[in-house]
Design goal:
Elements (H helix, E strand, L loop, with lengths): L2 H5 L3 E5 L5 H10 L5 E5 L11 H16 L5 E4 L2 H14 L4 E2 L2 H11 L4 E6 L1 H6 L1 H9 L4 E6 L3 H6 L6 H16 L4 E5 L7 H8 L4 E4 H15 L12 E5 L3 H12 L5 E4 L2 H7 L1
Bound molecules: D-glutamic acid.
Length: 277
């Protein structure tokens, strides 16, 4: 197939639910001409508390569903899926597959001055040690302090972004990483960029926060440019959304994440994901 016709194909992006919209937002901002298909597995969220085997199974099903829709590149927006399933997905797909861990890890390694980096994420992401490995792959002498913050996801979905309860929760979770004297903190979960204000307040201005959504969008642009499959203009550009549960809650919470209207959204049965593998 000619590069020009591949260029017109959509980018596929999936997440365990709604949080991946933080990544999608950055993709739309940086690459407005690209068509995108977003799959949010809202019926099976959260992934962050599940075993890596289960997350791998779900992630593979999501990937195959998007592949069947003719995508040119796959973005795994979910940190938990990226941490546990990137290699297995890469092994079965013949298109570029991008996880979120590496871009965030590289940015953190390039940012730290005192070689002490904090990483926060879901239990499954932290348990996988994926960020620590990826950061130390860049620079072995960096000490990585990891902390799971499971309550952050429901707090964000509840919309309590600048609430006293959120600040108290953040103080409790982050004391340990703060005491470790880190100068860089990776927000290793799709939802955490929405808590930037509270996290900054707790950590102090001097700690640099790494938002992996922004880092990932930059990498996507680079890959499409290198492969010469960047879509040239907005002719025929579309933005399509699939969810596995009712669209109501998704649309309500999505407003906080995406800040743009969602017009084309469809609910699909989990069975159709299971059939995709
Ligand atoms: N999307 C997940 C992540 O980035 C957070 C929500 C979940 O646990 O599924 O790790």
């Amino acid at each position: 197939m000619k590069n020009s016709s591949i260029a017109d194909k959509p980018i596929g992006i999936f997440d365990s639910g709604i949080g991946g919209l933080t990544v999608l937002k950055e993709i739309h901002r940086l690459l407005p001409a690209e068509s995108t298909i977003y799959l949010g597995d809202t019926a099976r969220v959260p992934y962050g508390i599940r075993s890596s085997e289960t997350v791998r199974k779900y992630s593979l099903q999501n990937s195959m569903f998007l592949m069947e829709r003719g995508i040119k590149l796959l973005i795994i927006a979910c940190n938990t899926s990226s941490a546990t399933s990137l290699e297995s997905i890469r092994n079965v797909l013949d298109i570029p597959v991008l996880g979120v861990i590496e871009p965030g890890a590289k940015a953190a390694a390039a940012t730290t001055r005192n070689n002490r980096v904090g990483v926060i994420g879901t239990e499954a992401t932290i348990k996988s040690g994926a960020y620590r490995k990826a950061i130390q792959n860049v620079n072995r002498s960096i000490e990585v302090i990891e902390k799971s913050c499971p309550l952050f996801v429901p707090l964000v979905e509840e919309g309590w972004l600048n609430d006293d309860i959120t600040e108290l929760t953040a103080r409790r979770y982050l004391q340990e990483v703060k005491d470790a004297g880190i100068d860089t903190l990776v927000l290793g979960c799709t939802h955490y960029p929405l808590l930037k204000d509270v996290i900054k307040k707790v950590m102090g201005e001097q700690t640099v926060l790494i938002d992996s959504a922004i880092e990932k969008a930059k990498v996507v642009k680079q890959i499409l440019t290198d492969l010469r499959i960047l879509k040239k203009d907005t002719n025929g550009t579309f933005r399509k959304y699939y969810v596995t549960d009712s669209t109501d809650r998704f649309l309500t919470v999505a407003r906080r994440f995406l800040l743009e209207p969602i017009e084309d959204i469809t609910t699909i049965e989990i069975a159709s994901l299971e059939m995709a593998t």
